[in-house]
Prior knowledge:
Elements: E1 4-7, H1 22-33, E2 37-41, H2 46-55, E3 62-64, E4 69-71, E5 77-80, H3 85-96, E6 101-106, E7 109-114
Parallel strand pairs: 1-2, 2-3
Antiparallel strand pairs: 3-4, 4-5, 6-7
Amino acid sequence: MYKLIVSDLDGTLVDSNKNLSEYTKEIIGKLKEKGVYFIIATGRNYRGAKKIADSLDLNTEIICNNGSTIYDHKGHLIFQKTISTVVAKKIFLEIENTKSIFFASYGNNIYIQKGKIEMTS
């Protein structure tokens, strides 16, 4: 018997419309009844992941931001790994002259920028 299951959200537990099926809820409920520890791991930030965790009545840690942050069952940050400011600035400068749309997350903040990106020291 499994003791722990870690699952992605988008395209795994939730469909392309961001819906969580009743079947999925039922199966996860049965796993919890059998004592299986169920954890979400996602690219979403904490707030986005917490909504799904609450709808599944999970009282477990949540792995967010593609593994760069982990929150305990009370919502306290227990792990965070980020890139250095020096590396971030280099990335921003490379993107600045492209026609790309920049997307980044840090904690519960999401940054989206199209075109020129201004960086302060």
